[in-house]
Description:
Helix content is 62%, strand content 12%. It is of the alpha+beta class. The longest helix has 23 residues, at 74-96. The protein has a 3-stranded antiparallel beta sheet.
Amino acid sequence: MLKKELIELCLLYLMTQEDLYGYEILRRIHESFPDTQESAVYALIRGLCKNGFTQRYDGETSGGPKRKYYRITPAGEVKRDQLLKEWRRLRRALEDIGVV
């Protein structure tokens, strides 16, 4: 499992908890992956939408431009579960050889 898949897992997990707008997603991802480029996170978000794992919608305006919010779809829940299963498998394998 590469960093890309880990960040996708984190994105889908965050959206499981609540609908989020782009900058809030980016802020939360940077807390755990500070070296990740903003453009890379947004590209992953767009890819999740394009593949039907998330949906984008415009939120209410409060004096500025509309915020783009994202929510997980049923297909995204399946993808999240697959990525989580793979992460757990990888983690067990690393523990078995003493890496973790």
